[in-house]
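Final paragraph of the annual report: two paired records, presented back to back.
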Amino acid sequence: MSSLHVSPVAVYGATGHTGRFVLAELARRGIPAVAAGRRAGPAHAGAGARVAPVDDPDALVRAFSGCGAVINVAGPFLDTAAAVATAALRAGCHYIDVTAEQESARATLRDHDADARRRGLAVIPAAGFYGGLADLLASALARGADDGAAIDAITVAVALDRWWPTPGTRSTGARNTFPRLVIENAALAPMAAAPAQARWDFGPPLGMRDVVPLPFSEMVALHHHLPVRRAGAWFGSDALRDLRDPATTPPSAVDALGRSPQRFTMDVVLDDARGRRRARASGQDIYAVSAPLVVEAAARLIADGPRQAGAQSLGAAFDPHAFLDALAPAWLQVEYGPPVPTQA
């Protein structure tokens, strides 16, 4: 893709941990970038820097002017998504973010759909590791079913060998006090107050892991476009201990891409009239892998426009198989097959 004929992509929160991965991925693909943020900071090489406080709507519009898309990686998204999405649409840009916060994703889908449709633009919240990846995997499994056929259940399970949280992750966790939601009877509903514990076999290299119920923004994404009756999510207990330990350090780079050594596996299991099927994605560094996810979305929107305008999830906005194939094997190893056994 030649940068001579591609609209720039604005990255809001560009100087943060995930923002630096996004800028690097844009540069790798030859897509011009504009580094934007709430306050002045060192500009990434090759990207023009623009300062726009989140409470200054006109400054945000100016920061995004001339761009084709805005990627928002500035959390907590409960504090940034509404203002940044509104300004992106006013500036004539598609909007993409990486929120794991369920309430933020719900509000973005609800509040910006009409304006995005009117302007012929796409708004895609929760397009990163949390939210978007599970939605793509589930959408790939669901594809081929009869149109409108109900999905009995979707289960998401995530294991990390370690979790070195960024300062942004910690501040988002403190800010996000809303009840966790799952899908019950085809509606979003609060998760049971006394969650169970189970064991899940993630296969090599992570193997059998203790997991606890912990849904993220993938519940909102799945509910928004798939006819699923019930959905929930499991998360590795050992990674949660890392997150909850105040002594756990932020991630440190171990390779030329700036990734930490963290390994992840995400399983998505879907039950419908055709039986039970599994999709599995594995890779390195949950923060780093969000960059190719959102950059792939931005590149497709700028090059081809949205399949349909409006607020939508990643799995609804694009062909999920083609999208995942574009990220493999450099960023993701994806496989499909029957689910491996779990132990309650």
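The closing record of the year follows.
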Amino acid sequence: MAKYDKNTHGLRWQVPWGKHSPLSYRASHKAKQGMGLNELNFLAVMVLKDPYTWMQSLCRNSYTARWKHHKKHCPNLIPNDVDKEHHYVRDDNHEKDLQHNGIPISIYYNPNTSHYANMADAWNTWNGAYMDADFPRLIIRFEDLLLHAKAVITEICRCYGGTLVNETHIQYIATSAKKPEHGHSGATSGFVEALLLYTNSTNRIKSFTGEDLIFANKSLNQTMMTLLSYAQPSN
């Protein structure tokens, strides 16, 4: 399939409302490259990650997410001694609130900021909007794209009414496609590291404390998890 340019049809690198923007922006916001385009004419492709690995990814590179955390405790859905040591917990009442509702997180989506109860709520809300949408869209698990790139990309092309230019010429980039100078410091270094990270059940939850894992299991939308075939790890 061709990459979009002004003289041809093809795939644009982002939807008119912006690739990171929540779905609520679809009818109210245009990214710079989306000016003058009708968002109703686009079939969006949304890629999501297993929430447990996504939370750890956010710890490595927070992008525009902001929440009180320290590298010694991240993901930090509920506070522990590390958070207390760094004065993220004000008093006993504040701790009770955080234990019940989780540590809040805010994510800036130009031009506004969205606020979530905790990291699990952020995953539920952003992805859930696409899951519940009433218009055609493609929802793809990142792990399937990583492990079965040829099959997945071929089906995407067919869905759009096209075919791969050369189905035998799919190549994996061995190094990271995201460069630190573009705001991606902390990203995995390449294909092999990504395979080790996303195919290992231990790595999936390696940074979670037992308490955070219990909270995540309780807070993540289990209907979505089941529909996407993401198994709940043991506490």
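The mean pLDDT is 86. This concludes the annual technical report; the extension proposal builds directly on these records.
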